[in-house]
Amino acid sequence: MADKPAIVLVHGFWGGAAHWANVIVELRKRGYGKLYAVENPLTSLTDDAERTRKMVKQVDGPVVLVGHSYGGAVITEAGDLPNVTALVYIAAFAPDAGESPGQISQENPPAAFENIAPDSDGYLWIKQDKFHESFAQDLTEDEAFVMAVTQKAPLASTFGDTVTSPAWRAKPCWYQVSTEDRMIHPDNERRMAQRMNPRKVVELDASHASLASRPAEVCDLIDLAARETAG
């Protein structure tokens, strides 16, 4: 529908744009015709924010910017563009100025922290045999196995990249907490959500992969953000 904003979806570590597959299908059913999913290089926060900005700038009209996991740090850094009307965080990092995802994680380590391992080239992976229990325990074994095999590893240095000027301080925002998250501690999610003073916080009994396991509820929050910021 012409009156609906564009939705730009930003993935996190250990996955690509296809992690949004179930959300994309659900949003289309709800009448959202302008849907975009960024494919970030996961080489640095600067690189990923710039890639996201380029996509947002290609959109004519208002944009609801949605980030999952590390994608929350990306939209925090890139969400200051004038046509971004709302920020939606899905089990995501929302760093303040000078904060990094790694710093936030070290302060309150998640349950699956030990299942992340570096390779000899400086990339961080979730151990394939631990992926299901770490990232997506509420998906089927087959679904999680595909995610494990196709995971996109970030450069380890990206964990330490800090946000400069957080967009959530200036833009309306919404946040979804995954209460069974083993990749970002749920209490970290609650703390980050609380300090950004969001319009709404939703808690789902879900894994880190809530975008795949609970797409209807995730889309409810995206749809709410779109409606509440409509022209």
UniProtKB/TrEMBL annotation:
Give the signal peptide, or none. none
Give the Pfam families listed for this entry. Answer: Abhydrolase_6 (PF12697)
Keyword entries, A-Z: Hydrolase
Q: Which residues form the AB hydrolase-1 domain?
A: 7-220
One example of the protein's molecular function in GO is: hydrolase activity
Q: Which domain of life is it from?
A: Bacteria
Instruction: Please indicate if the UniProt record lists Glycosyltransferase as a keyword.
Output: no
Q: Per its record, how is this protein called by name?
A: Alpha/beta hydrolase
List the source organism.
Answer: Streptomyces wedmorensis
